[in-house]
Amino acid sequence: MTQQLIPFISQLALTEQLLWLERLNTLISQSMAAQHDSYKSSINVVLADSLSTLEKSRCEIAIVANPDPTTLADFPQLVWVQSLWAGVERLIAEIPSPTFKIVRLIDPCLAQTMADAVVAWSYYLHRDMPRYLSQQRSQQWQQHTVALTSERTIGILGLGELGQASAAKLRLNGFNVLGWSRTKKSIDNLTCFSGADGLEQVCSESDIVVVLLPLTQQTLGLINQGLFSKMKPTAGLINFARGKIVHHDDLITALDENLLSHAVLDVFAQEPLPQDNILWQHPNITVLPHISAPTNRESACEIVKHNILEYCLTGKIPPSVDFHQGY
């Protein structure tokens, strides 16, 4: 039996990379042992740096976790790469004409993790937690009216797996939910909008706007002064997508001019966020260190294992990124 080597390409800490390798190889070997007559070669996931130039030239599959995209040029025969992240915009931006397919991680566990975060931070804004934190700092004892969730409208921008899961969980908590996507969609129990006019309508009607869009040429800087001017002055913004979708200078201006009340930001154009960035100190901005929906190693390894073994058995590549759409 021949050996198929699959490089693991990442800028994660070595200890974390080794944890991924251990779990992936355990799951792959267990599945192959159960169907040992079905496979013509053994499969082993290895650190990319451990491979020789000759071995790199023979690799058909790579597993990537926020890699330096230029390193993929060392693997000229790649057929497809499996990302361990849902977002692959850096790969798309820095490899404009790849010879291989890029497969995003589509994980129901990731969608539910994101939905939990959307609900949690929506409640953070809904229950005026930034205001009470400010009052605590000034030792001010003052109560404010508590609205019902049914009196709050939350707009979800982006109706992919993450957006749909978040909308469903918000509805379970009693919120009124609107959804927006660039192209028209029809989703059960969700009022959906699309296009420029639909975006303005969702933003103008929402008490909280949640950004869950992919970063593409069409969404770059999409949330800007024009939209902030349409929002309620009491409205809040949550960005759990990509930093460059929100125009941060416009956001600061909008907050300073009371065009909206507060922003929760989990993603930034540069991460970690530089210590001298003004976003850290703004009183109406909550900064999070990209924690809204981390990849779950166990569930991700199961999905990646399935995709790899399916390809080795049938030659079928999992659904891959449309480079024209950007996701």
TrEMBL record:
InterPro entries: D-isomer_DH_NAD-bd (IPR006140), NAD(P)-bd_dom_sf (IPR036291). CDD domains: GDH_like_2. The keyword Cell membrane does not apply. Residues 124-292 form the D-isomer specific 2-hydroxyacid dehydrogenase NAD-binding domain. Keywords: NAD, Oxidoreductase. It comes from Thalassotalea castellviae. It comes from the Bacteria. PANTHER family: 2-HACID_DH_C DOMAIN-CONTAINING PROTEIN (PTHR43333), D-ISOMER SPECIFIC 2-HYDROXYACID DEHYDROGENASE NAD-BINDING DOMAIN-CONTAINING PROTEIN (PTHR43333:SF1). This is Glyoxylate/hydroxypyruvate reductase A. Pfam families: 2-Hacid_dh_C.
